[in-house]
Design goal:
It contains eight helices and 15 strands. By secondary structure, the chain is of the alpha/beta class. It has one domain (38-299): Ribonuclease Z/Hydroxyacylglutathione hydrolase-like (Metallo-beta-lactamase, Chain A, 4-Layer Sandwich), CATH 3.60.15.10. A hairpin with a 2-residue loop joins strand 2 and strand 3. Residues 66-262 form the Metallo-beta-lactamase domain. Residues 1-54 are annotated as: Disordered.
Amino acid sequence: MDPDAAATTDAAPTAAATTDAAPTATASTAAATTAEPPTDAVGRGRPTTTLVGGPTLRLTYAGLTFLTDPTFDEPGTYPSPSSTLTKLRGPAVDAATLGPVDVVLLSHDQHADNLDASGRALLPSAGTVLTTPLAATRLTEVPTVRGLEPWEDVTLAGPAGDVVVTAVPARHGPEGCEPLTGPVTGFVLRADGEPTVYVSGDNASVDVAAEIARRVPDVALAVLFAGDAQTGRFPGEPLTLDAERALAVAGLWPDAVVVPVHTEDWAHFSQPLALLVETFEAAGAGHRLRVPTRGETATV
């Protein structure tokens, strides 16, 4: 998430071939700390979430297991030219006990709080890894990686039918930040008989989210990366959604359930999760929140 770290990482990417063929995901069921909800014979059921920590969320959807931004390192520091990111808490579920992952939704690879060493080591074992085109060129050790441009679709075959994943825009800071923060993507998931899901990635812009809402008005589950990340590069400008912006983004889909993630576990988050909850409650929207408990599986 450190802007200068992005510049350093992006300096000399190594090109890697990508394929236009739609990847096929392999269905799996990961271990969980609570019982999974009932599903039908082909795996349909209400989505479940398990918060590993930070931006890392295990999401079961339409019979497939998705994982957002894998981070499994223990606490430590990550120096960069402009600052040092500090991880305060390790994962609630370690990679070895997480279970198989069908699809990784990687918003970007250039910041350690979205992809750390242990998370990167997990990628080759995933059925499919979806990310930005630039990240795909760097992840040469991952045979199933695919880079998606904004609004590009990929269709994944699963036991409950096809899941269409669409890459959607994200802006990791104020307008014009991209040369420093690097490219970032969000995702939308759709499947017949399932709620439409929006995963924001490290997006800090309400305007960008509004563009997504205009094109995808039926989002029923919004996973929002919040916490008002601050590294000092853009003083006073969040690199992820602050509480008020998260509320505004939630308002774009008034009937959606909201799952906030990436609000804790790192020193550069300036707003605690409690402030986000208070902000939603003060606006009469507290009932829409599904705040995940680390390491526990919940139906949403």
